[in-house]
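Action item from last meeting closed. Structure (569 res):
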């Protein structure tokens, strides 16, 4: 089968390379223009020296700029276009109202996974670059507000309110959300520079971190989050132990997972106490020992409970403990303010490094603004359109795939008209074989509709094609059952449509030969594999389409089915 969406990596990277090339050309052009103007400008003097950016603020700004760039690169992982939306849906599964809010985004992402993911990559890399170059003034304030706005979007729609909507939202799991810390950092960058030199900004950074830790301690202590149980207490460490890594790194995870399984109350009690103590200490004291102790807690959590947060191919950030540690580090006592710098010093060297620095800053700013604003707006214009080819690949684990030409399994069943249909009777025709439940109300009607839509677009080619759906329900096995499905879903007018059924034992053998698994739960609809096989006129399997049950890209599936039929005819 392969990894869902793994084939979309080259498409994503190809689109990003084209976008980056266009943005780079524009940035270099602007940098050249600025460099020429700076070199020709007359020297300016008489301006009072200004103080350099406070170092604590500079540390916070640059560290979170790099985090945003890293997050953008993580969003560009090959599994992201197809896999990211599933992660989001899982995070928001605890609240129907948030799923409703998310629905328009989900629909757009489903139809255009590569375009949507590329837009997210560009926004985050662009914001990171803007944070790198925007130190003060209107641009710096605009960037800080943009970062806070994007953080809110990511927290609500990308993280499901930081994982607070389902059990297991604890300090160890990163709740109440890493991107909350990103938003706090951006808000601190809005403070005047004198707030950093006076100590007010570091105090606010400390207390914001203390508030975050206080919430995390409460979540860790809530019985409803499951951290007092053996499974809940050991889950973060067990996840780290399951990752492939050297033995020396795996040993602490295995040891802690075992200890948490045996003594969940003790392990979780210690965790709650440490997090609560760090929160209280940061709120009431700015002493170096208190701040360093909180940093040690963040470092240990980032390693032992969050396993650095970036492993697995679907991580969108390095988890919570790292950015929180950076926020706390900006409150360390002893940051020096910096020395006064002449405001027009670079004019004195306008023919050398000074002009080059100004031109480079202008080029990077232009490049970043194109990525963060213009490219996402351009890509967003493509999202309302019909589904593209990447949607099919994302939703069917790679789209249509050629398979070894083995003979089609032999069968003899009865269709909705009461007529015999068998593998031998279909020889000489191109056959599509799928597997449906006649009482299903979710995926099966969608697959049937996609097949019917393709069939109606075949024109004269329809005479050479037969479509066979095999009944997967071991309870509803009668001709009346498959006939009712055919009539109720508007398939009766298709002369080449056969919904085949038969004795449960015989049908079960046929399904097993096709590799179709069926599960009958105690309550609810049965579950079964979803697939469409393409069989050549000489009776051999030629291609395979996994899944296909997605109403958002029904046209794409139908189009792919028609194209495959034509290529095999």
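Sequence:
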């Amino acid at each position: 089968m392969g990894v869902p969406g793994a084939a979309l990596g080259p498409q994503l990277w190809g689109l990003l390379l084209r976008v980056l090339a266009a943005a780079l050309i524009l940035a270099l052009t602007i940098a050249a223009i600025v460099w020429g103007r700076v070199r020709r400008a007359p020297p300016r003097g008489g301006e009072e020296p200004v103080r350099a950016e406070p170092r604590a603020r500079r540390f916070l700004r640059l560290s979170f700029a790099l985090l945003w760039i890293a997050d953008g690169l993580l969003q560009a992982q090959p599994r992201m276009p197809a896999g990211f939306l599933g992660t989001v849906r899982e995070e928001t599964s605890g609240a129907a109202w948030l799923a409703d809010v998310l629905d328009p985004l989900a629909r757009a992402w489903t139809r255009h996974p590569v375009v949507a993911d590329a837009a997210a990559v560009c926004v985050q890399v662009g914001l990171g670059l803007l944070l790198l170059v925007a130190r003060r003034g209107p641009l710096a304030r605009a960037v800080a507000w943009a970062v806070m706005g994007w953080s809110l979007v990511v927290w609500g729609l990308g993280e499901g309110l930081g994982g607070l909507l389902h059990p297991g939202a604890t300090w160890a799991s990163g709740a109440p959300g890493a991107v909350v810390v990103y938003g706090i950092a951006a808000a601190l960058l809005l403070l005047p520079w004198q707030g950093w030199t006076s100590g007010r900004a570091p105090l606010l950074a400390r207390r914001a971190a203390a508030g975050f830790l206080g919430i995390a301690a409460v979540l860790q202590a809530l019985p409803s989050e499951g951290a007092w149980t053996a499974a809940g207490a050991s889950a973060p460490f067990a996840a780290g132990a399951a990752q492939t890594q050297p033995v020396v790194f795996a040993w602490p995870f295995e040891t802690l997972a075992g200890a948490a399984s045996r003594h969940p109350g003790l392990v979780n009690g210690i965790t709650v106490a440490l997090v609560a103590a760090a929160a209280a200490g940061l709120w009431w004291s700015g002493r170096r020992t208190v701040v360093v102790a909180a940093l040690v807690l963040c470092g240990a959590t980032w390693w032992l409970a969050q396993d650095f947060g970036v492993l697995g191919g679907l991580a969108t950030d390095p988890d919570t403990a790292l950015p929180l540690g950076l926020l706390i580090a900006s409150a360390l006592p002893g940051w020096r303010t910096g020395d006064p710098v002449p405001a027009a010093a670079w004019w004195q060297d306008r023919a050398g490094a000074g002009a080059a620095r100004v031109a480079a800053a202008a080029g990077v700013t232009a490049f970043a603004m194109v990525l963060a604003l213009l490219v996402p707006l351009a890509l967003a214009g493509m999202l309302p359109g019909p589904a593209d080819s990447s949607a099919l690949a994302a939703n069917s684990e790679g789209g249509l795939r050629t398979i070894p030409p083995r003979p089609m399994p032999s069968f003899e069943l009865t269709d909705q008209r009461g007529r015999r249909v068998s593998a031998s009777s279909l020889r000489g025709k191109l056959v599509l074989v799928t597997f449906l439940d006649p009482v299903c109300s979710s995926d099966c009607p969608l697959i049937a509709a996609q097949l019917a839509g393709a069939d109606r677009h075949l024109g004269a080619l329809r005479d050479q094609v037969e479509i066979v759906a095999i009944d997967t329900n071991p309870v509803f096995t009668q001709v009346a059952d498959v006939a009712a499905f055919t009539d109720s879903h508007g398939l009766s007018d298709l002369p080449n449509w056969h919904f085949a059924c038969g004795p449960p034992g015989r049908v079960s053998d046929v399904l097993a030969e096709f590799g179709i698994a069926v599960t009958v739960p105690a309550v609810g609809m049965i579950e079964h594999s979803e697939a469409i096989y393409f069989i050549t006129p000489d009776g051999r399997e030629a291609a395979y389409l996994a899944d296909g049950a997605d109403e958002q890209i029904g046209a794409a599936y139908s189009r792919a089915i028609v194209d495959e039929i034509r290529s095999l005819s």
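Note appended to the action item: The first helix runs from residue 9 to 40.
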